[in-house]
Amino acid sequence: MPMTQSYASGKVEITLRGTQGRVAVVTINRPAARNACDIETVQGLHDAFADIDDDESILAGVLTGKGDSFCAGADLKELATGRSIGFSWAGLDKGATRKRLGKPFIAAVEGHAVAAGLALAVWCDMRVASDSAIFGVFCRRFGGPMPNGATVRLPRIIGESRALDMLMTGRPVNADEAMAWGLADRRTAKGEAAECAIALADTLAGFPQSAMLCDRHSAISQWDYPEAEAIEREVEGAREAFRDAFQSGATSFVSGAGRHGENL
Asked: Are 140 and 164 in contact, with CB atoms under 8 Å apart?
């Protein structure tokens, strides 16, 4: 992949960052609309995510918005015309939030991550929130549903009661509350979320990948199975990582590397 690449007529951009360009930063580029997404932008995100997933040189991703907002959800001007009524961000027609990728993604949230923008944030594995971050289901006041994965993923992250609070009331949740609830995983000063997320993604990209990815896959997929079956799948999924990397990693530790929390 080139160092920069555009999708959806420039409404979505990928920039390679991190060590040896192994982190893909996906930016929603509609700052005049608070990065609200029309159909073209959502489908551009889908294509960008698919290309990142297919590129073996990219090991982690960061999702952010241009300017002062992460994403204000669906473009209400387009919705008002009726053109995007029925279009689902988690649908089969290039819905950006339908499928989780095979590598970690981190949301860098400045300003509003609301309505379907919240769905993009919780589609990611982790969220870095700046002091300016606001999460919420703001489409509640306009009669908009959330067919974008958020009603499934949000309760799994913060619990059913808190998710229902957000989904039913549509109230704003600031960075303090998001951190207390586990909706945000890291906190930064305003304007620093992207750099913090890139550094975090680069750290993930620097680990031995097989073990990290099998643990990630087990954590994401275990919801679909009874406990005993989920544990059996966890054990089976770890076999390759044990065989390919863990013994050499243990040998390195015994030799003195990676001690006191340092990376190998």
From this structure: no
Burial of 2 (0-12, 13-18, 19+ CB in 10 A): exposed
Distance between CA 127 and CA 183 in Å, rounded? 7
For the chain, the distance separating the N- and C-terminal CA atoms, rounded to the nearest angstrom, is: 27
What digits encode the pLDDT tens for the residues 235-257?
888 777 756 765 565 566 567 76
Q: Are strands 105-109 and 126-130 parallel, antiparallel or unpaired?
A: parallel
Q: What confidence score (pLDDT) does residue 231 get?
A: 87
- In Å, how far are 59, 70, 235 from 56, measured between CA atoms? 7, 27, 25
239 φ, ψ (degrees, to nearest 5): -60, -45
Q: What is the pLDDT of residue 249?
A: 59
Instruction: Look at residue 192 and tell me whether its pLDDT is greater than 90.
Output: yes
Amino acid at 14: I
Residue 115 pLDDT exceeds 60: yes
pLDDT bucket at 1, cuts 50 / 70 / 90: confident
Burial class (CB in 10 A: 0-12, 13-18, 19+), 259: exposed
- Kind of pairing between the strands at 60-65 and 105-109: parallel
CA distances from 226 to 43, 149, 160, 229 (A): 34, 22, 19, 5
pLDDT value, residue 245:
65
Beta strands in 38-96 (DSSP E): 60-65
